[in-house]
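[job 4471] stage=fold_predict status=RUNNING
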Amino acid sequence: MRHAWQVVRAPPVKEVLMTVPASPIFQLRSGETWRDPFPMYAALRDNDPVHYAASGDFYVLSRFDDVWAAAGDSATFSSARGLTVTYGDVDRMDMGDAIPMVFLDPPAHTEFRRLVTPRLSPRKVSTIEPDIRRFVVERIEKLRSTGQGDIVAELFKPLPSFVVAHYLGVPADDRSLFDRWTEAIVQGAAGGDPTEAAEPFSDLLGYFATLAERRRTEAGDDIISDLVALGEDNVSIARILGFAFTMVTGGNDTITGMLSGSACLLTEHRDQRTTLREHPDLIPGAVEEMLRLTSPVQNLARTATRDVEIRGVKIPAGKKLLLCYAAANRDHDEFGPTADTLDIERRINKILTFSYGTHYCVGAAAARLQARIVLEEMLTRCPDFAVDIEHGRYAAGNYVRRHDSLPWVAG
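[job 4471] inference complete, writing structure tokens
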């Protein structure tokens, strides 16, 4: 394949030096720099798929096969030392026995995951659909009544918070308090320095410690009650608190990013939207395609437990390895030459939006359900909606790409 910089004749040495492309450089994004990270991802995939980021002393994987393999090998690529490229971040947070399950490796992770996944299976998650739909309809109708508004503030941010609160059994009267802590913790985690959220983290753990104690005598229909019922000998209160933290940090801003990104895609691709409106049976498949393209968790880190070699690049034990899910999800080798464009009828076998293997997202079914309901209701109630992509504002944070605000009009 001939690149644009190739020439047929043999050029002088000076011309060769001027036309050889520079090595791609990976840069962590945040805020406005999230607007278009995709050319950087393409350059990494094409020219340096196992990239060494010298400024942070970590490696970056960008091709689908490599990321898939690394995500599935928790023995070689551990989560126990944190999911950011900052060395020592978990130690500084000092969570003690309340360490979240996302920082656990097998067998501890496997054992605890087995306890919580029944509540989050697709079949079980479907039981909350009426509640989610009522919430979504109420928020959309409120937006329709004014004709415009900030879709993130009105729907895409409060919806996942509502769902997480439901699964954790947070009483309705406490939702405002819960939302405030959630926002502070999500912001701290998004910035790559969890210590910034130390105070709200402490407050949240204190709240759930009290709630868990209450659930010993006042059991509810929620995961906290289920775990408490297993007894302290099987599941400690500290482990329950760690799970609550996982749900808060993993189930909020990620869904916001997926929903806001999907709204942008449907604004850009009106023809695809028309097809969805005329053929609503395509919506579940379209959700997969939008999950692939938005990849709200753009990247997360692991730590090599041994010396390992990938594509001829040696990664020493103890070094951080960034799994770039967003780059992998647009890999042409996996998704074909149109990998960068929306195709709601694309046949998708696997994606990395929810990672893979041991740390496959426990909330994947709930995320898909929220996306499907939002699409169904928006396409039915305001089929000509549009979001102002240019004036949308991206949130701070190096790992999750999401909007902090996004102007919306009913159309």
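[job 4471] summary: Residues 1-21 have pLDDT under 50 and may be disordered.
[job 4471] exit 0
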